[in-house]
Amino acid sequence: MRIGIIGTGVAGSLLAEALLDAPGIAVTAYERVAAGDQAEAGTGLNVGPNALKALRLHMPARHAALRAASLPWRRWFVDLTDGTRLLDLDLLDLAEEPGLRIRWSELYRLLRAPVAGCTRNGHALDALEEDAAGRLVPVFRTADGLVRDGGFDLLVGADGRYSRLRALTCGEPEGTLLGVGIWRLLVTEASDCPYDDYGQWFHGNARLLSFRVPGNAVYIAGTFPLEGGGQIPAETRTEAAQRALFTPKDSPPCPAVAWMLDKVAAHLADIHWARSATAPLQRHDPSGRALFLGDAAQAMVPTLGQGATQAVECGVLAAQVLRRGGSVAEIAALRDPRVRFVRDFSLEASDTLAPGVDVVEGTRAKASPDFLAKLRRTYTEVA
């Protein structure tokens, strides 16, 4: 069986590595960026305990490598921006092991290195054709022009929420904007940072999220309501607007928030701005010749840190099905109910980002038995 993997992000790299020694399977991976180019991966992320469980069960060497290159994610605390504590969870009360905190660039380096020998860099999917046997033939745009690499029994789209393979085989998905703006920043000189593990700070429905990552760096993200779900206004992308969003009305910000706002002011030009959105779940095309993994299949809100985490589950578990000769339909049966649960729960957990929701009441509800049971299920129910 000849398998082509479009994209060597989280799911694509893990799938390729897990299939390298599979009898009867030949794997070629294609990546649009040049070898070693991680310029698009400038910030940090947290990966949930469920991803680490999937790796521990099925790819222990990769589990060990990621653990060695990251910081543990054990706490999740929520404060108001004046420092009032609303929630403080220990993940080990809910999971079998902690999650992790890491830079995107380091994550990509660790995942792509084992599959460098089967990866063709500088290949951007441009079009699809079909050979005489009815197999899909990808057409790639490269520095030397358009190239073809023969037909594949299965093409895997692991090329992100704007998947070209999904668009070519199923049409462009209609995304749903959630009426929330989001920005991200990696502060690379952070020896004076007054906090460590994963924290959130609310002022009304505007929220800061931040944590340390290796290399004396700190990842910071801000979210804020957008009227009508429209574009982010230019006046919002200013130091004054961001300070107003996150500064308490009747008191100074707590030291953590004050530190973050000063870093935003100093690095405003480095911030990446976006709008939070989801896309419909799509696991494969109607013919079963194209399989979608990670964000290409299931773009979701980032509230519970399950975007990259579910991509890990996708890559690891799809490989187990394919290794035993299973089909894309079997992968869908294994993954889709799990993904639907996590997507719905992540949306539920995003309630405090919506205008008009009481942040104090909504956050304290996350200590309820019902919410914690769903969080435990998220962190432990890995196939």
Q: How does this model look, in words?
A:
By secondary structure, this protein is an alpha/beta fold. The two termini are 24 Å apart. The model has no long low-confidence stretch (mean pLDDT 96). The longest helix is centred in the last third of the chain and has 22 residues, at 328-349. The chain has twelve helices and 18 strands. Helices cover 33% and strands 27% of the residues. The protein has one domain (2-175, 277-380): 3-Layer(bba) Sandwich (FAD/NAD(P)-binding domain), CATH 3.50.50. The strands form four sheets. It has a seven-stranded mixed sheet. A five-stranded parallel sheet has the order 8-2-1-12-18, sandwiched between helices. It has a three-stranded antiparallel sheet with strand order 3-7-4.
- Care to count the β-strands? 18
CATH architecture: 3-Layer(bba) Sandwich
CATH fold naming: FAD/NAD(P)-binding domain
SS-based class? alpha/beta
Helical content stands at 25-40%
**Helical element count?**
12
Order of strands, widest sheet:
6-5-14-15-16-13-17
| General form | globular
- Unreliable runs: none
Q: What is the radius of gyration computed over CA atoms, rounded to a whole number of angstroms?
A: 21 Å
Report, as a whole number of angstroms, the end-to-end distance.
24 Å
Q: Profile the largest sheet.
A: 7 strands, mixed
Corresponding CATH superfamily: FAD/NAD(P)-binding domain
Order of helices and strands: EHEEHHEEEEHEEEEEHEEEEHHEEHHHHH
Name of the CATH class = Alpha Beta
